[in-house]
Amino acid sequence: MKNYIKAFIFIIILIIIICLLNRVFSPVGSSEGGWYVAGAMRDMYKQDKNTIDVLYVGDSNVYTGVSPLEIYNNIGVTGFSASTPGQDTIGSYYVAKEFFKTQSPKVVMLDTGELFTTKEFFTELSTRSEIDYMNFSFDKLDLINEDYMDFSIKEKLSFLFPIIRFHDRYQRLTEFDIRKLILKSETSYKGYLYDIKTKKYENKGKSIYLKYKEYQKNHKEINIENIDLHIEEYAKEKIDELKLLCKQNNCELVLMTMPTTDERAIEKYEIFKEFAKEKEIKYVNFNFEVDEPINWETDTQDKGDHLNIKGAEKVGNYISKYLSENFEIENKKDKPEYKKWNEVLQAYNERKKEDNV
User: What is the dihedral of CA 162, 165, 170, 172, to 10 degrees?
Assistant: First the structure.
């Protein structure tokens, strides 16, 4: 019996060590900016059960542009931005499935940014950002075995045991790899990556917003049949599955387009509107359906690719207005069980004040 107990203890210790090494050696979160991904995705699992009203999923435009604390500050609606760099629609679906295990959101808002992305543009780091920090479950296995991903046996094993793929990273480990063991999400405000930097967009032409206003004024019509863009079939299938998942959980799916400098934003807008109509899904575009557009000289951290805190403030206002007009979600700010949220909000607002935001 003693030998059995010793063997059992040894196996448990070995599993713990392997799990720790998997997190350290995975390249996800191995840089200062990347630390967000490791921290925030783990932070998703640490939210108090059934306290999140809205889930925001999508690529890096979500975790740099959607600050749930802005919405909570405005209307008392809680949320979490469970997004990763280059998160494809398959990843968004499985992240939502994980989220529903502990939360009962009223709304899931899916960013449309990756709906045109084909498999050849998936990167290993973006895929691992979705998978490596997901709790082990049958859903994780289903994601690894997705037909469209077409992973080899070796790749599948490496998603379960990243140390197999990255055992030679020991020479390139950084302080951020070690910090991943602590699992403290100090850069994550409910999934949002706070950034004060400002690097303006250099394009001297008219903004996308002004171009759209002219487009409306001139009553131009775009025949989407003539546009050489189309939503990928795998994305359509996963949106159908996500819509069904939401329905089964008394939740509603909303497609959203984050602010962008994309020159083809108007064409994509028309495609998304038609698609949402066909699928009977709500759709909102934060490029055009807003009162105060993004200022791409002051509201971006990297020349128009992602928003900074000033841009996230505006998106927070957009979403607050949209949720208030389309859903009946209770204001939680005065409820004692949301004391933690108010404490995080206070720290968040104090940081903004220090940064003169």
Answer: -100
